Amino acid sequence: MTTETRRKLEQEFNALPLEQKFSTLFRMEASTLEEAFTYVVNSTMKAAEKAGETMKDLGAQFEVKVEKEWKSAKKAADDYQAPKAKPKAKGPAPKPAAKKKPGPRKPKP
Questions:
Q1: Residue predicted with more confidence, 83 or 64
Q2: Structural domain of residue 75, as residue ranges?
Q3: Which string of DSSP letters, residue by residue, matches 11-59?
Q4: pTM score, two decimals?
Q5: CA torsion through residues 9, 11, 14, 19, sign
């Protein structure tokens, strides 16, 4: 706003009756509050969008890392060869050997 425009506005405002001055001031105040509120809301929305983008990026990075780990684990599991079990013998199981029972004791001389 130029100096000349400002002077003109001040002269017009000074020429108004007191009631109209208050009315004009209230409208200007309401306009200022509306602009400030809009600025705060827009700034908050921008910050929330930025936070959302950051969370999305972190999630994508985490997803890539998990996928790599999953593929690595799957490859390791596919490469692993479990030891083969011994085939079971056919036929009856062998009987355990019979234990000898001790005989009577002889007295010592």
A1: 64
A2: 3-79
A3: HHHHHS-HHHHHHHHHHHHHHHHHHHHHHHHHHHHHHHHHHHHHHHHHH
A4: 0.44
A5: negative
